[in-house]
Amino acid sequence: MNSSAIKSVSPMGFQWETEDPFLFCVHHEDFYPKANSHFGPDVSLSGRNIGQDFEVKDGFRMYHGEKIPGFPSHPHRGFETVTVVRTGFIDHSDSMGAVGRYSAGDVQWMTAGSGIQHSEMFPLLNQDASNHLELFQIWINLPKKNKMVKPHFTMLWNETIPKLKLKDGNKNITIELVAGSLNGTKAPSPPPDSWAADEINKVSIWILHMESGAKWTLPKAEIDLNRNLYFYSGDSMKIADQPISKYHKIGIQSQTDVLLENTSNEDISLLYLEAKPIKEPVVQYGPFVMNTREEIETTFRDFQRTQFGGWPYPTTEPVHGRELGRFARHADGKEDHPPANA
């Protein structure tokens, strides 16, 4: 096993480089101060580019939010969003009338399909201490045959996401399976029209945690899968005996076993994305992803005409009550909650 297993190594910026069928991946981590009574930071926001606040100042960003951090109402068509929360809270609202709140360890998987508006706000609930937020958002393309399916979202509660506990001697390795399978254990089912819904497409989204000194071999798979590791937490490691420093993306061969080794004095964490590529043309304009320029132009006209169902809330930055826990209320009125006995 050697560095021939590695196809590429590149530094990761704010937006992480991805491969088909993954379109986009971003890692948000913000250290918000204690909250005010309106779910925002209890500090002055002067000096920030409110509405476009993407520069870290005093440990946090407001993103597109004006009073509450996050992403107020905006449209999507033609792909899916997978939002993986590590710590903190996200309040979801959408043009279908669905709402929800999810938190540490939960995942929301939303198929935009033919078109949806949604908001993703980061309500600060702790008024007595700081509010730490960490999440990944991953965009997955839809094949042409599914680009205009009905919008849908699935909530994968932390309690339902398998965490494989592996050992390397006395060293611990934990692998969280958001999508895909490993050692006979399967992740929860993705939305029905997802590229990941057909197991033949081999879509895997895993989060790996390795104690200092731990080694683990990522098993080989079939040829021509796109496989990437994102080393986002920890100091140093080796992949196929090649030293890798923190905050680098590593593209790896799919038909080769790949040895991962934590060479640092602390735990490390990696995000792993794997899938069979869709291999169709991709034309993206902002929040719309289609196969042709003409389809993008049609999407703009459709949104101007229908607003993808309109926005049924009095504000573009809706959040839910401070007293509410984790929940999802779908467009049909059905409520979904984390399993009580998990």
Structure description:
This is Pirin family protein. Its cofactor is Fe cation. It holds the Pfam family Pirin_C. It comes from Leptospira ognonensis. With 342 residues, the protein is mainly beta. The longest helix has 14 residues, at 293-306. Strands 1-21-18-23-16-13-12 form a seven-stranded antiparallel beta sheet, with no helix packed on it. The protein has a six-stranded antiparallel beta sheet with strand order 2-3-10-5-8-11, with no helix packed on it. The mean pLDDT is 96. It is globular and about 55 Å long. It has one domain: Jelly Rolls (Sandwich), CATH 2.60.120.10. Strand 24 and strand 25 form a beta hairpin. 4% of the residues lie in helices and 43% in strands.
The number of helical runs is 1
Radius of gyration: 20 Å
Extended strand count: 27
Low-confidence stretches: none
CATH superfamily: Jelly Rolls
Look at the structure and give the mean pLDDT. Answer: 96
- Strand order of the biggest β-sheet: 1-21-18-23-16-13-12
Question: What is the CA–CA distance across the termini?
Answer: 40 Å
Provide the succession of SSEs.
EEEEEEEEEEEEEEEEEEEEEEEEEHEE
Helix content: under 10%
CATH architecture: Sandwich
CATH topology: Jelly Rolls
The best one-word shape is globular
Organism: Leptospira ognonensis
Binding site for Fe cation: 74, 76, 118, 120
Domain Pirin N-terminal: 60-140
Family: Belongs to the pirin family.
